[in-house]
Amino acid sequence: MNSQAPARRSHRSALPWLAASVLAAGLLISAQHASAAPTGAAACPAPASAIGLSKAWKLQLPLPNSSGSPLEVKQPALATYDKAPWFTTTSGCDAIKFRAAVNGATTSNTGYPRSELREMTANGSGNAGWSSTDGTHTMVVDEAVTHLPAGKPHVMAGQIHDATSDVTSFRLEGSSLYVTSYNTPHYKLVTSNYQLGDRFQGKFVVHDGKVDVYYKGTLQATIAADFSSGYFKAGAYTQANCDNSAPCNTSNYGEVSLYDVTVTHS
Known about the structure:
The chain is mainly β. The protein has two helices and 15 strands.
């Protein structure tokens, strides 16, 4: 009995020392992790830089300028411009977020607001304008519609415009995504089950007096279109306003995330 007592006392006396050692080691590891942790996440780049936007665009926002017309931002200012929440980089730093509220400023020829890019010449010095019967003109957009206005949940995301009107576009109404043709908003139903945030590639190819429209790599429609002074647009064109959608404030809006846009002419 007496010969075993010292062993039991030795075991009990080691417990406080062992606990203290484990605690010290844990504190040391925690301190090392804390010192290695970043002090703050880096800010996202400006919207244009986030997707490598070319110089061949200008921006129109649903914000009134000094004369009450929609604000325009051209190059070179556009390269570093950010105006949250109307034109800003998404939280993932990989797309441009375009937002247009129902009470936003509009142009004289429409009652609907837009936060949208308009195609310019290659160096951004003037408005682009080309013919549907001369050469081939292509725009590819990688995008997702992320929010719809209340009451009239309609948003256009990517379009071709001529001197006087929309030629064709992708138009989302609720969960139904359409290809439009001039004044026919439901020219071709692409899908009746579009989910907000669903990222897709859309492509417009203009040649020989017609437009081929692709969705996720599949041809959806071929539209006869003989026009001059054509140009591409990309962003969020909300098809609702305070006359048909409530509430009439900035909390009611359409929104599109644009991950990439490329334009080629040949």
